[in-house]
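[Help] Beginner question about ligand-bound structures

Sorry if this is basic. My supervisor gave me a protein sequence and a SMILES string for 2-acetamido-2-deoxy-beta-D-glucopyranose and asked me to "get the holo structure". I don't really know what that means in practice or what format the answer should be in. Inputs are pasted below exactly as I got them.
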Amino acid sequence: MIKLLCFLLFNAYVVNNAVGSVIEVGGFKSYVSGSPHAEHAVILVSDILGYKVPNLRAIADKVASAGYYVVVPDFFNEDIYNPNNTRRPLNKWMESHPTEQGVKDAKAVIRALRKRGFSSIGVAGFCWGGKVAAILSSTANIQAVVLCHPTFVTLTDIKDVEVPIAILGAELDTVCPKELVKQYKKVLLTKPQIKNYVKIFRGVDHGWTTVYDLNDKKAVKAAEKSHMEILDWFNKSLK
Ligand SMILES: *[C@@H]1O[C@H](CO)[C@@H](O)[C@H](O)[C@H]1NC(C)=O
Ligand SMILES: *[C@@H]1O[C@H](CO)[C@@H](O)[C@H](O)[C@H]1NC(C)=O
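Answer (accepted):
No worries, everyone starts somewhere. Holo just means with the ligand present. The predicted complex, written as structure tokens, is below.
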């Protein structure tokens, strides 16, 4: 995973064709894309690399082009995880940025969007953001969630889910192993009243929806497929 993170930090930042802009939403600097007059809004909760990652912003633009107002908040105040900083390993960084804080912060963004009159709100979370999205699904006024290779999500979190949920896992993921994703599915099967979609993508690793080499055709294809699934879930659950 660290290797992948480094790769992203040092190589993937060079491409940036983003069409949105950075404004404040609910007290957080956010990348926004799409019409503010759209009927539905989508919040993307980033992984530990934060809201500037071009591949994440590209997902925002994609979802926006399907008719949503998309918000990618900066919940880290630009203090993203730096794999180079050996004095601040991931667990130390997490002490400054617990997912509980992410949930609290996301609720402020949700309230702000509610005030603006969006008729429904969806949340997609990536890794760290996957945990935030999972908790929001039972504690906030939102209508759908997508968890992409989530981290720290417990079976209890899944048991508590109250809105349509899609979970995208990766076959080679060791952070969120496919066995765990299968257990999520089992829990969801006990909740027939909650629409769910659980898929394990073949041949890909943790983070594949956002951390990929733009020159690797296979990786790009897998990532694009996952983006379509995210969009499909919001189309089915929010509209
Ligand atoms: C991390 O280390 C690499 C290799 O030493 C260096 O090229 C890069 O600029 C550093 N990146 C950050 C974010 O500090
Ligand atoms: C989602 O809906 C938009 C607008 O109706 C449509 O253009 C897009 O193809 C749909 N995407 C998927 C993956 O269902």
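A couple of things worth pointing out: The longest strand covers residues 120-126. The longest helix spans residues 217-238. Feel free to follow up in the thread.
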